[in-house]
């Protein structure tokens, strides 16, 4: 089972703490500074883009996550003495077909909904395509976005899911905890400032969905594919002035954001459909024991 793969006789939860504490501390500090100093995140991004260009700001936005990904993997391998494979999956090796299947399914759905939104409400978009900046964006995004999303998956659905699960001997506690932390991680995003804290329900719900597919599938491969598709396809196809990713994408959404379709359709309709697709394809069973059962540890 996936959580148990991280357990050995040398397991020490204290060694798990530095990276998540540093990350959560930095996020908390960033949020406090924004609130106390009443910083308009959207305006700051607009000024940075005006000075440096969209692609440069995009790189600078992604780079901290990439550095943290490298730091996390090095820490796991050399401090926790755990293989990257066991951080990724309970299988003997990483199943890349799962990554690509999840990427293709969610990427197709995401692209389809963007296309549908453009066709049904063309006044909400302007054509933003410019060949050279877009080609540059595509190269940057295809390299850096999967690394950024992989950091979040390795941290929340891998590292913390396993560590909290081993300490609590529970599957439900790390599922809930990592989902909440994943949502809170996005609290300083400009989308929250623009739409409101209700958007946290979307992030927490997405974290819950990713946690469920991780526990049911005994690995983070499906979560890796989903998250990469979600961020990459969005970065390439549509941008707006109030999102964390502002890019030289094909379209620019100029509509006024509102709570509704973009939040509740994924949570209430699309994610359950994906759970059904994945469960049928990979033959999932024993939902209760896999999501809420106790963990039995055997020393190696």
Automatic annotation (TrEMBL):
<keyword id="KW-0472">Membrane</keyword>
<dbReference type="GO" id="GO:0008237">
    <property type="term" value="F:metallopeptidase activity"/>
</dbReference>
<feature type="domain" description="CAAX prenyl protease 2/Lysostaphin resistance protein A-like">
    <location>
        <begin position="138"/>
        <end position="233"/>
    </location>
</feature>
<protein>
    <submittedName>
        <fullName>CPBP family intramembrane metalloprotease</fullName>
    </submittedName>
</protein>
<keyword id="KW-0645">Protease</keyword>
<dbReference type="InterPro" id="IPR003675">
    <property type="entry name" value="Rce1/LyrA-like_dom"/>
</dbReference>
<keyword id="KW-0378">Hydrolase</keyword>
<keyword id="KW-0812">Transmembrane</keyword>
<feature type="transmembrane region" description="Helical">
    <location>
        <begin position="131"/>
        <end position="151"/>
    </location>
</feature>
<dbReference type="Pfam" id="PF02517">
    <property type="entry name" value="Rce1-like"/>
</dbReference>
<keyword id="KW-0482">Metalloprotease</keyword>
<feature type="transmembrane region" description="Helical">
    <location>
        <begin position="99"/>
        <end position="119"/>
    </location>
</feature>
<feature type="transmembrane region" description="Helical">
    <location>
        <begin position="259"/>
        <end position="278"/>
    </location>
</feature>
<feature type="transmembrane region" description="Helical">
    <location>
        <begin position="16"/>
        <end position="37"/>
    </location>
</feature>
<feature type="transmembrane region" description="Helical">
    <location>
        <begin position="195"/>
        <end position="215"/>
    </location>
</feature>
<feature type="transmembrane region" description="Helical">
    <location>
        <begin position="172"/>
        <end position="189"/>
    </location>
</feature>
<feature type="transmembrane region" description="Helical">
    <location>
        <begin position="57"/>
        <end position="78"/>
    </location>
</feature>
<keyword id="KW-1133">Transmembrane helix</keyword>
């Amino acid at each position: 089972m996936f959580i148990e793969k991280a357990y050995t006789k040398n397991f020490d939860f204290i060694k798990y703490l530095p990276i998540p504490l540093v990350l959560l501390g930095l996020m908390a500090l960033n949020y406090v500074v924004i609130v106390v100093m009443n910083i308009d995140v959207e305006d700051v991004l607009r000024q940075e883009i005006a000075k440096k260009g969209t692609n440069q700001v995009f790189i600078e936005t992604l780079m901290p996550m990439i550095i943290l990904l490298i730091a996390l993997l090095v820490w796991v391998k050399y401090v926790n003495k755990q293989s990257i494979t066991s951080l990724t999956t309970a299988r003997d090796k990483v199943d890349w077909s799962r990554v690509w299947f999840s990427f293709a399914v969610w990427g197709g759905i995401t692209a389809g909904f963007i296309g549908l939104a453009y066709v049904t409400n063309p006044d909400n978009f302007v054509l933003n395509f410019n060949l050279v900046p877009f080609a540059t964006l595509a190269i940057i995004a295809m390299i850096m976005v999967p690394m950024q999303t992989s950091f979040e998956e390795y941290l929340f659905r891998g590292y913390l899911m396993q560590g909290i699960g081993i300490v609590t001997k529970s599957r439900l506690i790390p599922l809930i905890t990592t989902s909440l932390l994943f949502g809170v991680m996005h609290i300083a995003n400009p989308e929250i400032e623009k739409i409101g804290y209700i958007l946290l329900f979307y992030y927490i719900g997405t974290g819950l969905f990713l946690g469920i597919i991780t526990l049911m599938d005994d690995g983070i491969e499906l979560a890796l594919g989903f998250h990469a598709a979600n961020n990459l396809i969005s970065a390439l196809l549509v941008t707006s002035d109030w999102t964390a990713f502002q890019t030289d994408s094909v379209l620019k959404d100029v509509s006024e954001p509102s709570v509704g379709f973009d939040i509740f359709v994924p949570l209430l309709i699309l994610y359950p459909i994906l759970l059904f697709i994945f469960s049928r394809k990979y033959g999932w069973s024993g939902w209760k024991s896999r999501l809420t059962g106790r963990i039995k540890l055997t020393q190696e």
